Every structure is written in C-alpha cells, then in structure tokens.
Amino acid sequence: MRKFILALLVLFVTSQIGYAIVDTTKVSINEAVSIAQKSNLDMQSYRLNINIKDNKIKESNRLQNPQIGVFYNFGQAGKGNPQQIGASQTFEIAKRGVRKSLAESEHELSKRNVEYLEFDLRMDVREAYTNLLATKSVLQTRQDQEDLLKKMLELAKEKHKEGAVSQIDVLQAQLLLNQMITEVNSAKYNVKTALYEFNKVINCPDGFYDTIEDSFTSDYKPLLIPKPDAKMPDFESISTEAINNRYDIKIALQEIEVAEKNLLVVLRKKIPDIEITGGYSYQNPGQSGDGIFKNGAFVGANLVNIPLLYNYAPEIKNAKLELNQAHLNYASVENKAMNDLKKTYEKFLTAQINLNNYNEQLLTSSEELIKESRKSYREGETDLTTLITMEESYRMIMIAHTYALADYYNAWNAFIREVNNEQFTIAPEAV
Q1: Domain for residue 331, yes or no?
Q2: Residue 287 domain-assigned?
Q3: Over the stretch 271-292, which tens digit does the pLDDT of each residue have?
Q4: Residues 84/281, Cβ–Cβ less than 8 Å
Q5: CA distance 343 to 221
Q6: CA 343, 349, 355 angle in degrees (round to 5)?
Q7: If you average pLDDT over residues 193-217, what whole number do you get?
C-alpha cells in the first residue's frame, strides 16, 4: 500500500514538473530581448536609481531651514532688558550651485549606468538564446545519429540472420547505440539547463520562454548574425568609432566629471556661511524701569562654519585622490577596451574561417564518405568495425560542426558586445 501511494505521489510530482517545462512560450530573439527589457526584475530595480538621483538634485538645491527662538529674562535680570522673539536664517555662500551641479552629474552617471546595464542585458539575452539553440542543435545531431545507429543495428541483425556476419557485429552495433542513447540523454539535460539559464537571464516572473527555432539553420538573419561568407572590415576602420561608442568609456568619462565637481563642493565648504537673525523685542511696564510698555525690533548677523578649528583638509585630499583615481580608471578602461575589441575581432575571424571550412569542405566530404561506408558494409565489402570507425569520425565531424556554428554565433555576439553597437553590419557577402 505504501509503495502504491509513493508511486502515485511520484507520478503527480513528475506530471507537475513536466507541465511546468512544457507550458512555455516560444519567442524570437527580438521578442526575447523586448520581454527582458520590459519585465526583467533587475532592470526594474536599476532604473529606480535614476529616480533616486533625480530626487537628489532637488535635495542638493535645498535652502537651510530657519530657526525660531525666544529670549526671555526672569526676575531682577529682566529689569531694563528686553524680551525677544525672533528667527534666524543661515545662507550658504557659493555652495548650493556646485552641490546641485554635482547631483546633476551623478544623475547623468546613473542614466549612463542604466543604459549600459540595458545594453548588457540585451547582449546577455542574445547569448543565452544562442546557447540554448546550440544545445538544441547538439541534441538534434545526436538524435539523428541515434536513428542512424538504430538502422545500422537492424542491418547487422539482418546480415547475421543471413549468415553474412557473426553475432559480434550485432553486439558491437548494440554497444555503439547504447553509448549514443546515453549521449542523447545528456544532451536533453543540457537543453533543460540552457532553457532555465535563458529564463534566468530574461528574469520575468510572468512567463517561461523558449526559442522558436529547434536547431541552427542556414538562415542567419533571424538570429541577427551575418552569413559566414560576409567580409569583415579591417580593424582600424572600426576601432576608433567602436571605442568612442562604448558605454564603459562614457561612464568613465562621466566619473571624472563627478569627481571634479565633488572636489569643488568640498573646496567650497571652507567658505563661511552667513547667519541673519531678527525679530520682535519688548519690555513689560513692570520691567521697563519707568513703568511704560516699550517695544521694537532687533537684527543681527553672524559668520558661521568658519574653518578655523577644522579646515576640511582630509576631505579635500580625498576628493583630489578620487579625481586622480577617476583619471586612472578612464585610462585603464580605454586600454582594456582596445585589447578586448581586438581579441573578439580576431576570435570572430577565426570562427568564420573554421565554419566556412566545415561548410565548404568537411561536411560534404564526410557525408560522401559515410554513404560509401554504409553501402560497402551493406554489400559485404567491408566489416562492421570499419563502418563503426567511419561512423565515429562522421559523428565527431557533425558534432564539431555544430560547435563551430555555436562558436561563430557566440563570437559575433562577443564582438557586438565589445563594439557596443547592436546595429553594426558588415558587407553582405565576400566576392
């Protein structure tokens, strides 16, 4: 009874899990990017920083709140002395403007950071989409090979019945098929893992998404990828514009501006502020000395926040160090950007050459070779061991071609990420 209940429980849980995986929405790469841009939880959080910085601008431009006070003398101390009710107001000298300017620069920095994060998210979605499609392609390739191995096993069984081959051929074919079944199962797991990673990148709580395509095709346009025979421009013609377009360099420049304005804000702290006081003053008849009620007003002024005991030297030194740090960071970002751009440029060219080598030579020759090998075994001209060797070579080439395709797609995405230009195009085809 317990086993029966446990079996029902397992069936229920697996059915629920299966439903969760099956209940997906298939989307194109552009649709996936759009969904992530709109619904990604992290991006929704990041965008709030712009609103926070917007409020910081208003905060930085604030006026000092006034103070209201009462000065009252009691007893003999009040004889001949006025009672006072008044207010004081502190006016900052040369501080509000620079503080607001700093807040505006920080607001702009926040916007640039969000723009960079949005671009980064779009590229992450593209890469996750490509990676999911790559795992699907590997699975499709392995399933195709599984079907071929099943046919080879059936052929070996037929030839064994005819007495043309021994039982060893059947065992060898079965062993190879069993190995491929294991590889297919592993490939299915990889697809599920990539599917969850894809949805993790999109990070939308209201849906579960999958790619429209189930494998790589000869049509590269839907995945925003140029054809592998397209001609790439030389590096010098794209490097300058690419460096100027990079979000991280723009951010580094903005950080320099923020550091400069922060230094100015700190320097202005050394300027004293003015405090103006004023109010109503009066003497009661019993305290005026001559028995007459007297009233009037008072006014005064003070210099406050005079930098005598503390002159803000540590803050000034730190602000200068932060400015120097921002300049060094800019130089570092620019230097790294050039190296990363060069690296991804070379990687794409290499991936392009490798894929073209598979498309133009290896695939055609290997397909012809495997057809001849199967024909030879069917006609009894070669043994199963030779056919298995050819099948293994063919399988390796097909899998390698799939990985070469994935590498080509990923290399292009990596290059676009470094160029920071999703609209970057190259010549349609090499002549």
Answers
A1: yes
A2: no
A3: 999 999 999 998 888 777 777 8
A4: yes
A5: 24
A6: 130
A7: 91
Query: Could you tell me which residues are beta bridge partners of residue 86?
Result: 69, 279
Long-range contacts of 322-326 (CB under 8 A, 24+ apart): 322/259, 322/262, 322/263, 323/256, 323/259, 323/260, 323/262, 323/263, 325/259, 326/252, 326/255, 326/256, 326/258, 326/259
CA dihedral 233, 239, 244, 247 (to 10 degrees): 90
Tokens of 28: 């194109």
- Give the pLDDT confidence score for residue 104 in this predicted structure: 95
Q: Report residue 13's pLDDT band, with 50, 70 and 90 as the boundaries.
A: very low
The total domain count for the chain is 1
**Token pair for residue 333?**
């970002």
Q: What angle do CA 422, 427, 431 make, to 5 degrees?
A: 155
| Burial of 226 per CB tally in 10 Å (0-12, 13-18, 19+) | buried
CA distance 111 to 49: 8
pTM higher than 0.85: no
Residue 400 belongs to some domain of the structure: yes
pLDDT at 376 over 90: no
Residue 124: which domain range? 25-60+92-272+307-419
116 part of a folded domain: yes
Specify the higher pLDDT residue, 325 or 372.
Answer: 325
| Farthest-apart Cα atoms in the chain, separation | 143
Q: Please write the tens of the pLDDT for every residue from 242-259.
A: 888 899 999 999 999 999
Please give the backbone phi and psi of residue 49, each rounded to the nearest 5 degrees, phi first: -60, -35
* Contact indicator for 269, 95 with CB cutoff of 8 Å: yes
The terminus-to-terminus CA distance of the chain in angstroms comes to 74
pLDDT digits (tens, 9 = 90+) for 42-86: 999 999 999 999 999 999 988 888 999 887 877 766 677 788 899
CATH of the domain at 134: 1.20.1600.10
Q: Are 121 and 40 in contact (CB under 8 A)?
A: yes
Residue 431 burial class via C-beta count within 10 angstroms: exposed 0-12, middle 13-18, buried 19 and up: exposed
